[in-house]
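Retry 2 of 3 after timeout on previous attempt. Resubmitting structure tokens to design endpoint.
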């Protein structure tokens, strides 16, 4: 660590913005040569070096080096077995400073305030505003793009993925963070319908909003009791309710979970607020009618996640339809066979409201999850190039595969044809205690960057068929209706960042509050619509729209 003082302003800014490879497997080490090796010397083994660091291959350094890294995580550094494996490969020791999330956030601020901060820090404890403040204003984290170009060819591969470089580049043109990029579904949260219940009431899969209401009525009136309780026609995950995505049935994605701000979408090439449009009002009126008819969970806006899941698991399933990530989150299994559908639920198709030619649905992304504030290197680091090379080694495919499944020979194996196969830990690890040691959250600090190409498919354990592709089937069903362009994950300029955060919170909270009142019948959307629009303007909606439009214009100009 390095001593620096008089950083109280940094803490004040941060507070304002709170809102393996084993011996039997190959290990990458940046086999491609760096962009420049003019200052390199040659070691006795023929490898080029800069100081104590080799420019290619493993180990990374001749004499052992150490860097410090603050991360939000549970457990102890000794339990994170992959760090031990990566140390054997690289000859670099990582001194992990681990705290649970809330404590880690506090420690981050204390460390920066005191001037005694680690060489690197990351996880979920850094916000966009943290990164912008520490880089462009206080300059206590360093730009990394030059180091990536010279020492990290694997990281450069990640930056070349569409959308990644734009996402991580700050307004000053520099990259201060290591990207996190893994494959993801095109659609994360969506409604799932019980197809067995559809068969029981004798109705086909709905195609329109009128069909859907008729199905919910049939679920309410015709299905037998489930362990003494009536089936709830429609419910949803409280933590990811996402009702606004179903405004897409009326031609408008109005998700509150859209990237870079709820209730914004790209419409006719411009970023627009969606909760003030007539389509949104029509969606609210439709769901208010369903609620009034007793077709929606009466606890939709009051229950917590645990209660929602517990109700769904009753008997054969208490929900006719529920909104969630996957059916397994809320529905009981009807089979233990993972190669077939394990529940009675399938993805509900994108419905079409009267007069709507082209319904839409929220696109979560383009197949890759990108997080951009998961790792920074501070000016306390004496050898930042070593840290960059160490991370490049983590990103090498053979190593990257272990961050989810565990070490080779225990959680994963690499086949002669280059494919990867998951190993059954019940076979490779005989005791429950040993298996706990190699669980997903124990082997690696999962909040830190990783790269796993979406095209890489890991084979199931030998003797087991591939898992039922529930999310792939849903993606194929929804893809024709997904937005062509999503709100980019742009950086908000530091001069308006505080205003943006305050306005976004106040406006999103108000929209959520009024939507819940209207749907649940506590208020009438038709009677209150004009007053609602006026109140949004009083809360600063037009100022917020301008901030978003200016940021979006900057992104388009840079393309």
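Retry 2 succeeded. Sequence:
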């Amino acid at each position: 660590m390095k001593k620096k003082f008089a950083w109280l302003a940094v803490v004040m800014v941060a507070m304002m913005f709170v809102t393996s490879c084993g011996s039997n497997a190959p290990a990458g080490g940046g086999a491609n040569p760096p962009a420049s090796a003019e200052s390199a010397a040659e070691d006795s083994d023929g490898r080029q070096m800069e100081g104590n660091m080799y420019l290619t291959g493993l180990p990374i350094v001749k004499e052992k080096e150490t860097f410090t890294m603050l991360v939000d995580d549970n457990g102890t550094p000794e339990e994170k077995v992959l760090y031990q494996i990566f140390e054997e490969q690289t000859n670099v020791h990582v001194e992990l400073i681990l705290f649970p999330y809330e404590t880690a956030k506090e420690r981050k601020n204390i460390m920066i305030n005191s001037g005694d901060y680690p060489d690197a820090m990351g996880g979920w404890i850094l916000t966009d505003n943290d990164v912008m403040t520490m880089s462009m204003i206080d300059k206590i984290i360093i730009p990394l793009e030059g180091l990536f170009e010279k020492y990290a060819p694997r990281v450069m591969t990640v930056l070349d993925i569409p959308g990644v470089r734009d996402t991580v580049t700050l307004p000053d043109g520099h990259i201060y963070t290591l990207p996190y990029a893994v494959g993801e579904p095109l659609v994360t949260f969506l409604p799932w319908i019980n197809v067995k219940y559809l068969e029981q009431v004798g109705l086909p899969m709905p195609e329109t909003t009128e069909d859907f209401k008729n199905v919910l009525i049939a679920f309410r009136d015709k299905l037998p009791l489930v362990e003494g309780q009536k089936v709830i026609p429609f419910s949803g995950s409280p933590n990811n309710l996402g009702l606004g995505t179903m405004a897409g049935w009326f031609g408008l994605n109005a998700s509150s979970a859209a990237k870079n701000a709820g209730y914004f979408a790209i419409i006719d090439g411009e970023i627009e607020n969606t909760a003030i449009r007539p389509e949104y009002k029509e969606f609210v009126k439709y769901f208010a009618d369903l609620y009034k008819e007793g077709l929606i969970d009466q606890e939709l806006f009051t229950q917590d996640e645990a209660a929602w899941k517990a109700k769904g698991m009753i008997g054969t399933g208490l929900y006719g339809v529920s909104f969630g990530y996957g059916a397994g989150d809320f529905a009981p299994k009807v089979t233990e066979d993972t190669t077939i559908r394990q529940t009675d639920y399938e993805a509900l198709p994108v419905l079409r409201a009267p007069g709507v030619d082209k319904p839409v649905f929220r696109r979560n992304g383009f197949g890759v999850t990108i997080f951009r504030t998961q790792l920074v290197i501070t000016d306390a680091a004496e050898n930042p190039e070593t840290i960059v090379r160490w991370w490049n080694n983590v990103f090498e495919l053979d190593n990257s595969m272990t961050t989810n499944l565990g070490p080779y020979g225990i959680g994963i194996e690499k086949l002669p044809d280059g494919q990867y196969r998951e190993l059954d830990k019940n076979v490779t690890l005989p005791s429950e205690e040993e298996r706990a040691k190699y669980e997903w959250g124990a082997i690696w600090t999962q909040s830190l960057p990783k790269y796993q190409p979406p095209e890489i498919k890991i084979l199931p354990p030998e003797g087991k068929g591939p898992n039922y592709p529930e999310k792939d089937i849903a993606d194929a069903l929804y893809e024709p209706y997904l937005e062509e362009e999503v709100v980019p994950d742009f950086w908000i300029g530091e001069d308006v960042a505080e205003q943006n955060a305050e306005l976004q919170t106040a406006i999103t909270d108000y929209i959520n509050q009024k939507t819940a009142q209207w749907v649940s019948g506590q208020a009438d959307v038709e009677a209150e619509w004009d007053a609602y629009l006026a109140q949004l303007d009083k809360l600063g909606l037009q100022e917020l729209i301008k901030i978003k439009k200016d940021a979006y214009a900057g992104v388009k100009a840079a393309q």
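Attempt log closed. The mean pLDDT is 89.
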